[in-house]
Amino acid sequence: MSKHKMPLRKKLLIAGAVVLAVLILLAGAFFWYVSDYYRAEDVALAVLSGENGITLQGDLTILSPSAPTDTAIIFYPGAKVEAQAYLPLLDQIRRTGITCILVEMPFNMAIFDSNAAEGVMEQFPEVEHWYIAGHSMGGAMASQFASNHPDEVDGLILLGAYIYGDYSPADTLTVYGSLNQSVEDKLDYTENVVEIEGGNHAQFGNYGPQKGDAPATISAEEQQKQTVEAIEEFLSSRNAA
């Protein structure tokens, strides 16, 4: 009987060692993948030290307008993009009188915390009107949240993304660059869609060129300026309704 037990024990040990080795390799590959991300440019980081109205609270960066507001936008960054890269854009939005709350995602990927907005809302009970926004994959996850929580958000704002899930285009603003063909090809609705001529995928944030993205023919400043104008018009039209 002992002759049969030893080979079985060895087989189990070998199998366990193989499984452990595979898990270590997979974990190493994962951490290598997520550690290679787009960093925020200096112009984006400079927003943090520019003036009052911006506070850090855990994994949130809160950009408050000069006057109190009952409306706020929760923003999900694009995949593998440092959250601070979107500060110039959000700083311009908050100057229109809207509170912006930037969420730093686990491993810089919104897919790992698509329901982050729920926790954000609980922390700011004074806000009466919530909009959720996001860029690229962050937009897809924001769209998913809006689809699953239609009674908790007043609308959805997508940048370089399209509706993912069952959410009404009437309650959605979709902004994309004319050179971002992958988004244009996926759009099957036309309501509240704004195309920025000469814009690309990456310039909604300030993190430099993105692999596979077409070079923009306008500056990031111009693309973001037009984006803010579209958002301001969208929110104004909903407030007037």
Automatic annotation (TrEMBL):
<feature type="transmembrane region" description="Helical">
    <location>
        <begin position="12"/>
        <end position="34"/>
    </location>
</feature>
<feature type="domain" description="Alpha/beta hydrolase fold-5">
    <location>
        <begin position="72"/>
        <end position="224"/>
    </location>
</feature>
<dbReference type="InterPro" id="IPR029058">
    <property type="entry name" value="AB_hydrolase_fold"/>
</dbReference>
<dbReference type="Pfam" id="PF12695">
    <property type="entry name" value="Abhydrolase_5"/>
</dbReference>
<keyword id="KW-0378">Hydrolase</keyword>
<protein>
    <submittedName>
        <fullName>Alpha/beta fold hydrolase</fullName>
    </submittedName>
</protein>
<dbReference type="GO" id="GO:0016787">
    <property type="term" value="F:hydrolase activity"/>
</dbReference>
<dbReference type="InterPro" id="IPR029059">
    <property type="entry name" value="AB_hydrolase_5"/>
</dbReference>
<dbReference type="InterPro" id="IPR000073">
    <property type="entry name" value="AB_hydrolase_1"/>
</dbReference>
<keyword id="KW-0812">Transmembrane</keyword>
<keyword id="KW-1133">Transmembrane helix</keyword>
<keyword id="KW-0472">Membrane</keyword>
